[in-house]
Amino acid sequence: MSVAPAEVVERAVTVARSHPELVATLLVVTVVLVGGGFLLHRLTRPSGVRFASLLADREEVVVLTHPNPDPDAMAAAMGVVSLAEQVDTAATIRFPGQIRHQENRTFRNVLDVTLKRIERAADLDTSAVILVDHSHPRGFIGSEEVRPLAVVDHHPSDGRGEAFTDVRSEYGACASVIAEYFQDLNATPVAPDDRESEIDASYVVPSEVATGLFFGVLTDTNRLTSGTVSADLDASAYLSPGVDESLLDRIANPQVSAEVLEVKATAIEEREVSGAFAISDVGTVSNVDAIPQAVDELIRLEGITAAIVCGIRNGTLYLSGRSRDDRVHMGRAIKAALDDVPDASGGGHARMGGGQVPIDDGDFVWPARRATLTDRLRRALEGDV
Ligand SMILES: [Mn+2]
After folding, report:
1. What is the number of domains present in the chain?
2. Are 278 and 148 within one domain?
3. How many beta carbons lie within 10 A of that of residue 15, not counting itself?
4. What is the pLDDT of residues 248-260, one digit of tens each?
5. CATH number at residue 185
6. Taking a C-beta distance cutoff of 8 angstroms, is the pair 173, 232 a contact?
7. Is residue 24 part of a domain?
8. Ligand 1: distance of its center to the CA of 73 in Å?
9. TM segments (predicted)?
């Protein structure tokens, strides 16, 4: 027996009339299913997809790095700018502080990263601020009033973005997180010899962005030797077809200025060693970044487990310390040694510390105090202060 379609509708209407509660229940179930499914879909979208749609909703965004941005921070920022441009959102990179270290300067120049320095919050000229590689704005006037729209970071922190927060403290580099965003969008890394316009994909990772992100992962994991997780390796593998090896070589092996090498040589020559601890005074320098680089060399000397290098520039004595000795918490040692020196500041982590001492008294008084300071540093390393 066949049933005419009209008859089916008629029967359904009859059932519905006699059981209104059934209709109501069906309606509620449908709404819950559709609504819930929609919500679930929104919430379970990969982070990269959510991030891209956040960017797409804005006319323009500012990507902000921490003070003195390193390759990981600059690479992450480049990645965000590239994503923004691909969803037709204008994006600029801003940074507080200075770019002095030769590795950072080389990275910026070779990859032609456009980033502008800011001094105060008003320089940001937009409310849509995206923080990369840090999660609390710092290093400029009014930084504490900036409420970031989004935070993408790999340092353990409670910092949050108003609309988007992605802090993956287990990752070795922020660049790995950004690379994953591209991967979430099925973006194709563009090989250095290919043209972007000839790639048949909705999203791409331009070659210089892939190269930058790849190097960001390398530097923040000390060439994949420390703090690396499989996500960092996955990100590197994903980016590798887009990596331009000649650019990578230029970024990874920057020219070192003669002064940095001279300061390193002085630090080694002038070292005063007692037991496993070395302290070295390199005198006046014109580039204070040479001081941490010098202590990085000094700590590599056989038999040395903790080292401090100090030098003067523009009336300030700069100290930089390294420890690979469990007995010495370098940050605390420097802090203790400078504790009651007027206007001095010092501190840091177990393996890395630094400090600054303003010298207003002129050279006449200072040499004696400098000897005293060296003595205190030595006692602090030995745990006596
Ligand atoms: Mn980083």
Report:
1. 2
2. no
3. 11
4. 999 999 888 899 9
5. 3.90.1640.10
6. yes
7. no
8. 6
9. 22-40
